[in-house]
Amino acid sequence: MSVTPFTVPAHPEEWEWVRQRVEEFRFFEEPEGHHWEHGANRAYMKRLRAHWLTGYDWAASVNRINAFPHVRVEVEPGFSLHAIHLRSSRADAQPLLIAHGWPGSILEFESIYRRLAEPEDPAAPAFHVIAPSLPGYAWSDRPKVPIGPRAVAGLYDRLMQVLGYDSFLYQGGDWGCVIGGWIGLDSRHVRAIHLNGYGLRSANMRPTTEAETRWLQRAAVTQAAETGYLHLQSTKPQSLGFAMMDSPMGVAAWFAEKYCGWSDQTKGAIDPPFPMDVLLDTIMIYLSTRSFLSATWIYRGMALEGGFSIPEGRRIEVPVGVASFPYDLLAFPPRSMVERGYNVVHWTDMPRGGHFIGLEEPELLLADLRAFVLTIG
């Protein structure tokens, strides 16, 4: 298996196509008084479109992304994953795979990669950082058929072996936390996992306390209100692709609604609480690589694999650290419920933060990951 240095391409021809399609987009009506409760907000999308056309510089973003060392790693014959591979100068550095989800990218943790590798405090743990793009995303290869998170866990495990790491630590949220659960179950190489999202569920989710009952009730409400995208992408993603692969504004609206609704809205914003350039960088990764559709295949693959449940009689026995952020899409249940399926040795109830935690609260994430690693030794 090979490891090849990689430079992220700007694809100017793709940018020109995107620019033209955004410029030609025709707006339409929305319910009176609507903000984000029915989906993407027209006023925000008009401002985003104007900034996209007149204030955004994709080429400059590509140059910034290329300041990190990138590789493409053959993990199966003819199939390669893209990753940032940032090695620390510290002799005691430990390998850390940090995994993004949807609708995210490797840029979600951009602000902490170098600090993970070269911490300011010599007493803090240092890491060789490996941040892969999911299969079908960005500059990773597309699988020939949809594959789910358990299969991705196997590819990530091989990624670390090909890079020369026989033992590694893992951090993830969104798909990253689901994949992390499978790595914890299946890998002989992962030493510990740190999660900022609740991915795999215990086979037994029957509530035994009032707090567990309340969590299940809230989860049912959240599922009904916020997971229509999941049902669509896990059942008929190809139909969605015919619309989205031809509409940059459609992709932008699909993503912007998630960046708004899944973030910590206690900040008082009704629009996504991130600079527009942050959203556009991620949107442009999907558009410039034509990967919106193939990025949805993991949902279909998850459905074909059988869902989110830990197999009956199994438990994730490697040490698990939990960073529980209160405004995540689906916040962690009480610790008593999580421990049915996970060997939790570190738990932090965070004071704030939502789903895109690498963008919202990178300091909290960084501090908790460091504390977990120091806990397990």
Automatic annotation (TrEMBL):
<dbReference type="GO" id="GO:0097176">
    <property type="term" value="P:epoxide metabolic process"/>
</dbReference>
<comment type="similarity">
    <text>Belongs to the peptidase S33 family.</text>
</comment>
<dbReference type="InterPro" id="IPR016292">
    <property type="entry name" value="Epoxide_hydrolase"/>
</dbReference>
<dbReference type="InterPro" id="IPR000639">
    <property type="entry name" value="Epox_hydrolase-like"/>
</dbReference>
<dbReference type="InterPro" id="IPR010497">
    <property type="entry name" value="Epoxide_hydro_N"/>
</dbReference>
<keyword id="KW-0058">Aromatic hydrocarbons catabolism</keyword>
<keyword id="KW-0378">Hydrolase</keyword>
<dbReference type="GO" id="GO:0004301">
    <property type="term" value="F:epoxide hydrolase activity"/>
</dbReference>
<feature type="domain" description="Epoxide hydrolase N-terminal">
    <location>
        <begin position="3"/>
        <end position="109"/>
    </location>
</feature>
<feature type="active site" description="Proton donor">
    <location>
        <position position="299"/>
    </location>
</feature>
<dbReference type="Pfam" id="PF06441">
    <property type="entry name" value="EHN"/>
</dbReference>
<feature type="active site" description="Proton acceptor">
    <location>
        <position position="355"/>
    </location>
</feature>
<protein>
    <submittedName>
        <fullName>Epoxide hydrolase</fullName>
    </submittedName>
</protein>
<feature type="active site" description="Nucleophile">
    <location>
        <position position="174"/>
    </location>
</feature>
<dbReference type="InterPro" id="IPR029058">
    <property type="entry name" value="AB_hydrolase_fold"/>
</dbReference>
